[in-house]
Design the sequence.
């Protein structure tokens, strides 16, 4: 009986979708990565897959939205509106963070988010570790006017009661008279994306990324001109697949701030895609966040472009008929299938090597020769050449770094012929498929990529050094020239090595 019901439901849904102009092939082939935004960036397409409804919850400044926490959301509210508020905990009428489960289009019972230490900071401007015991949040330090990013940890007090204990000082990279706000943590907790107007910004507020390396957060790097504009990019959010969502008033859109998404490709983020006027409007649409637990619910805020600047919260849901067709998350709707975890560059240093993880250290130029017979011919009967990847930079800092790199000449001997010698290379790209890429050009210099196969993915590197310093300089060039996720890899005795001693 159940089987009959499922078959009947599937046939009904198929007829509905066919009558709407979308067939089964369309659902699973709407783009190279199966994203539903991949073929038609219009409202009609998204209406079939997501619901967008206003949500009855007042957005209280300084917040501009809400954030998911465990099985509910965190939001700011005034204590005078909360009947169960204890005056002994928080003075009457002050702003405080609350937590509540979401039931359909309303909130469940409210509880104080941090009952033993006041937490009155923007709720959308926080991000949590997987166990929810570490919180990165935004606040303005005392005697300052600029926002900074702080850490708070959950710990037991003297009465064995759990409370939030914030750090006194902001993160180390939050320096200078600049704003650092709205942090968002990657799924492996090794990347922190945030908005800042710090030195190196292209426009007003730009998006930056810092990596957790050697027990601390690295110097932030600008996400580049593909994402950042001469105006403002703000409210970043990373979903469970590390796809990036943010608001921009510099990219083409429908109003002031529009919400965009950039798919994480394993080495960075692809070109931003507008979430269409199914979500965006003529007003400011900001603070987009997805429930990382089930991926089926999201919130964003619409702020009127008026003197009052009234804000309305909206809830985005995945339609049940779409979930029945094995489209299980909003992340899938917006960005398609995620990049396999094994090919994430940010996780590569923690990959555990095995005996079968030997490397192919021949230059990619040589590997491509074997594939040239398969390259399609053009109209003139000539074989088409693979495209170059050319990135031109003229910044003095890049030139100086490159001069340092060139002081150590790469070894002429192929790594496969060397014994007991450590070779350092810069990994700039990971792919599930073999790439026909003969060279990349950074700041006018040509580099021949070397390919190796590791943990189920093709990995591409440039440079070949016997000491670490010149490798560090080439890494800087890569990161400043369009490869923000580039990092150093070491090979010992013709095999990838994760020995931390090699990186000191």
Sequence:
């Amino acid at each position: 009986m159940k089987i009959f019901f499922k078959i009947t439901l599937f046939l009904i849904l198929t007829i509905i979708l066919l009558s709407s102009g979308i067939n089964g092939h369309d659902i699973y082939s709407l783009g190279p990565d199966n994203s539903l935004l991949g073929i038609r960036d219009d409202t009609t397409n998204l209406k079939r897959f997501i619901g967008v409804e206003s949500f009855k919850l007042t957005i209280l400044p300084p917040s501009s939205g809400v954030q998911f926490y465990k099985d509910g959301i965190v939001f700011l509210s005034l204590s005078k509106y909360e009947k169960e508020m204890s005056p002994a905990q928080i003075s009457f009428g002050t702003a405080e963070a609350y937590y509540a489960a979401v039931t359909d289009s309303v909130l469940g019972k409210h509880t104080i988010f941090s009952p033993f230490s006041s937490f009155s900071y923007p709720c959308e401007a926080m991000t949590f570790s997987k166990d929810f015991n570490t919180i990165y949040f935004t606040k303005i330090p005392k005697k300052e006017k600029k926002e900074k990013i702080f850490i708070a940890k959950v710990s037991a007090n003297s009465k064995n009661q759990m409370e939030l204990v914030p750090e006194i000082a902001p993160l180390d990279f939050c320096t200078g008279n600049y704003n650092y706000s709205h942090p968002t943590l990657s799924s492996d907790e090794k990347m922190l994306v945030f908005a800042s107007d710090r030195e190196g910004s292209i426009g007003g507020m730009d998006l930056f990324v810092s990596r957790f390396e050697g027990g601390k957060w690295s110097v932030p790097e600008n996400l580049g001109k593909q994402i950042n504009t001469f105006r403002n990019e703000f409210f970043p959010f990373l979903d469970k697949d590390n796809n990036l969502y943010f608001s921009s008033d510099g990219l083409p859109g429908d109003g002031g701030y529009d919400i965009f998404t950039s798919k994480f490709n394993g080495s960075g983020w692809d070109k931003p895609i507008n979430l269409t006027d199914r979500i965006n409007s003529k007003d400011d649409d900001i603070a987009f966040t997805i429930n990382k637990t089930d991926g089926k619910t999201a919130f964003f805020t619409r702020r009127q472009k008026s003197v009052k600047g009234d804000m309305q919260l909206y809830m985005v849901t995945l339609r049940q008929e779409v979930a029945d067709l094995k489209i299980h998350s909003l992340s899938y709707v917006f960005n398609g299938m995620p990049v396999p975890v094994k090919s994430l560059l940010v996780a590569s240093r923690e990959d555990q090597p095995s005996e079968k993880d030997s490397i192919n250290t021949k230059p990619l130029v040589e590997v491509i020769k074997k594939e040239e017979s398969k390259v399609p011919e053009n109209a003139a009967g000539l074989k088409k050449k693979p495209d170059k990847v050319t990135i031109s930079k003229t910044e003095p800092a890049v030139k100086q770094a490159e001069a340092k790199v060139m002081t150590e000449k790469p070894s002429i001997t192929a790594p496969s012929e060397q014994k007991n010698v450590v070779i350092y290379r810069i990994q700039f790209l990971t792919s599930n498929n073999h790439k026909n890429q003969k060279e990349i050009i950074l700041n006018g210099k040509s580099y021949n990529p070397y390919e190796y196969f590791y943990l189920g993915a093709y990995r591409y590197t440039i440079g070949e050094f016997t000491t670490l310093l010149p490798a560090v300089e080439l890494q800087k060039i890569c990161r400043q020239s369009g490869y923000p996720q580039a990092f150093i890899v070491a090979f010992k005795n013709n095999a990838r090595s994760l020995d931390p001693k090699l990186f000191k």
Remarks:
- Residues 233 and 248 are 4 Å apart (CA to CA).
- DSSP finds eight helices and 30 strands in the chain.
- The two ends are 65 Å apart (CA to CA).
- The helical segments are 2-19, 24-28, 43-47, 320-323, 330-335, 364-369, 396-405, 468-480.
